[in-house]
Amino acid sequence: MHELSIVMGIVDIAENETAKADANSVNSITLEIGTLSGIVMEALDFAWQSAIKGTVLEKAELLIKQVKAIARCKECGHEFEAETLYQECPECKSYFTDIIKGKELKVLSLTVDKE
């Protein structure tokens, strides 16, 4: 389950940023996760509940912005919503495509509490 190591990395980011802001805790955290990022949302939620105990994120509201995957065909240039990493272009049926959006995993924002 790689989601646990991902959550631990997010905890590290939150603790570092909270210390930089001279704050005590995080009120909310917003993550951007692409539909083709490889993250299993149920596993992320399970790992989140365990990993945040005793950290600055313990009482934080978790907000997730999911990004739909978009691919661009290398043959005809058509852009389309992709459901898998290897999907044919609906226009020319080529499998030579690039995923241009949807593999993201980012911490977009933290709202901290200085009290």
* Structural class by sheet pairing and helices: alpha+beta
The number of helices is 2
Low-confidence stretches: none
As a percent range, the share of strand residues is 25-35%
| Radius of gyration using CA atoms only | 18 Å
CATH top level class name: Alpha Beta
- Residues in helices, as a percent range: 25-40%
Q: What is the CATH T-level topology?
A: hypothetical protein PF0899 fold
Broad shape: elongated
**What is the architecture at the second tier of CATH?**
2-Layer Sandwich
Essential attributes:
115 residues, alpha+beta, hypothetical protein PF0899 fold, three-stranded antiparallel beta sheet, 6 strands, 25% helix
